[in-house]
Amino acid sequence: MSAAPTSTTAALPTSEQHGIKAHSDGRFGFVPVQTRNDRFKSVDVADFAPVTGREAVWKLSPVAKFTDLTAGELDGAPYDVASTPTDGVAIDWVGRDDARIGSVGAPEERAAANAWTSFEKALAITVTGEEDKEITITRAQLGTGPRGAHTIIEARPFSRATIILENTGDARITENLEIIVGESAHLTVVSLQEWNTGAVHLANHFASVGRDAYLKHVVVSLGGSIVRVNPSVRLAGPGSDTDLFGLYFADAGQHLEQQVYVHHDAANSRSRVTYKGALQGTGARTVWIGDVLIGRNAPGTDSYEQNRNLVLTEGTRADSIPNLEIETGDIKGAGHASATGRFDDEQLFYLQSRGITEDEARRLVVRGFLSEIVQHIGSKPLEDRLQAAIEAELRSTDEVRAPAPTEEN
């Protein structure tokens, strides 16, 4: 059942209170949302006003380019997925009455609510067994019509697995992914976006991590026109632990966005957030917003988030906004960092002084910058494939930077 919209309004002052009186705009006494976790949530698209682009969650997004996903009707039917049978991993389509649906989170914005309202069945991935296992689940050619989807990943207590969600081909999709990590489970989820050039992908990932459990969440965004993947992780059990990694490479005209939220809601929980991106070409745009909330019930928290962006050419824009809220003083540590810049001239000079060409020196610097994320994935075949994809992006960087040929008379 969807929640009803709520707002908080403070009592209006009286005329005896130092002569204070209400403003003519009618908003006097309005109290805004106080913490990141207090945002309005609902699974019903009708509970959200039409998107204007002025909302906090949309103000950095090109909302006019995907109104069909925020306001239009969506195809919520099941779609084709490909995978190799793997012991300890079950893949099924389940009905909307499955008890796991809605157990982790709920939409905070209209596109996610539209997907939740529209999906017919959810793709359920269930992990059991204490042995390590890896599976790749591929979606390809979802078409160009607007689509809504829902996925559940459940790692049963003490289970271990790496789940790679591979997205390729054409798509216009808004979706929700719920991740349930049971007690002492160890789960890695990799979301890989290698869509075709015109694809639009809006995704919200909700995760709950249980007692002494661990979640590694990796977002890799390389293809697509607009890709917006927003992970939200609640460290719900004592001793819960998470690493959130992100890698993105924006080309000319691409918009790659990620809004990351970590909620420490249990004692002695730990989180690390590391996102890195590169930008090249006119109109390349990236957005990273990182929110960490250390709640009153989370003494002993250890948390750190960081975002780094490397600008390779002129005409790009990277927005990087870290936020940290702390509601208890009994923590081990908390911090955040953000940086956006161009190549380090000293690094380039050092490499060139040893006989390396400028173009190759630039590739080495970028490769080293992004490889930190790739090496954390833990799947050697996927790591090798992503290194090759980065090399392809860097070769196109050389083409972008190369001067246009001139005609000889």
Automatic annotation (TrEMBL):
Biased composition, class Low complexity, residue ranges: 1-15
GO biological process assignments: iron-sulfur cluster assembly
Residues of the signal peptide: none
Coiled coil segments of this chain: none
Domain annotation SUF system FeS cluster assembly SufBD core: ranges: 149-369
Pfam families according to UniProt: SUFBD_core
Source taxon at top rank: Bacteria
Region named Disordered: 1-23
Family matches, as InterPro entries: Fe-S_cluster_assembly_SufBD, SUF_FeS_clus_asmbl_SufBD_core, SUF_FeS_clus_asmbl_SufBD_sf, SUF_FeS_clus_asmbl_SufD
Similarity comment text for this entry: Belongs to the iron-sulfur cluster assembly SufBD family.
UniProt protein name: Fe-S cluster assembly protein SufD
Organism: Cryobacterium zhongshanensis
Lineage: Bacteria, Bacillati, Actinomycetota, Actinomycetes, Micrococcales
